[in-house]
Amino acid sequence: RANRAKSSFLSNMSHEIRTPMNAIVGIIAIAKGHENEPEKVKEYLSKIDTSSRVLLGIINEVLDMSAIESSKITLAAEMFSFTAVVDSITAIYEGQCRTKGVSFVVYNTMISDAVIGDKLRVNQILMNLVSNAFKFTDCGGTIVMAFGETIRSENSVTVNLTVSDSGCGMSAEMMSRLFKPFEQENPDTVQKYGGSGLGLSITKNLIDLMHGTITVQS
Fold this sequence. Notes:
This protein is an alpha+beta fold and 218 residues long. The chain is 56% helix and 16% strand. The protein is built from seven helices and five strands; from the N terminus they run ααβαββαββααα. Helix 2 packs across helix 7. The protein is globular, with a radius of gyration of 19 Å. The two termini are 25 Å apart.
């Protein structure tokens, strides 16, 4: 089953990587014919930038999964503001949700905002969860992100984070394999929404490294 999943993943990835790569190559070729039109060149550069970021995101997920499977990821321990991380995610998705016609709501019940941990990985976890909610929520829907302290001791704090949406949901069978690498609900999901099928597996592994837990309801 693992081998079949990896074969399916490689097939999907060839499509996922070629799509932004072809866009980049094609737009560069078009831009070369408009070198004396700054506005057009600026527009083409913007499109190249977007496609490059999509491609980089896919490559980073593959590399992260490889590092996780070979136990090469270590967590940083630095002071950071949990609220500031959430605010940065909100800044990215509020505008996109507004354009799509989706409500984006955030509830913050943190008592003490300063925590010590891996800011980059916390941000990565949040991005994966919110981007999935955004991807599968149609116009008129709602995404809610809520976070706050649940347990505090002398040396640690447990933060409970919930990302919920009014999207299409998923089958019980899909929920049973949701956090496994290379998994997608079905080929139609890949064609319609894209994605590597690695985001939630990476999220689960990072949360395990933080001695946390992740659960799903649909």
